[in-house]
Amino acid sequence: MSPLVDADISADTDLLGKTVSDLQEDIVISNGVISGTLHYVTGYTGFDASHPELQEGHFLALHAEAEDATSISVRPLGSAADPVPLDADGLYILHIVNATGIEYYTVIDGVTYLNVYKFDGLVMEPKEDD
Is residue 50, in this structure, part of any structural domain at all? Predict the structure, then answer.
């Protein structure tokens, strides 16, 4: 069982002080691959107010849902950190530093299903000169 993972989030949705259109455009998920364009973002204090080094760079916003799921959790591909449970809205914002993909863990009827999505064809726009 896999969650429905998409980037179908309204362009003006507030994502901790930035909008989807501030972060990305033309994100497509097909056959386990995520592609599209990520804008270089600065001043993203809503993402992590206490760590300035995490307030700029490339961010990917995704949405996931699964019928009959008890929970959906997510983490960067290959990370040793515990997966992060998604809130009811199913939204997740990933600060892409070294990540090559993302893992979704979906629990349905006590069984955990793993789905992996690779970043292939993600265009990372460069930081604009001030």
Answer: yes
Predicted model pTM: 0.92
In a domain, 130, yes or no: no
pLDDT in tens, 94-118: 999 888 999 999 999 999 999 999 9
Return the structure tokens found at 77.
């591909």
89 part of a folded domain: yes
* Tens digits of residue pLDDT in 16-52: 999 999 999 999 999 999 999 999 999 999 999 999 8
Can you give the residue range of the structural domain that contains 66? 4-124
Identify the H or E element spanning 20: helix 20-23
> CB within 8 A of 100, min separation 6: which ones?
77, 78, 118, 119
Q: Rounded to 5, what percent of the chain is helix, strand, coil?
A: 5, 50, 45
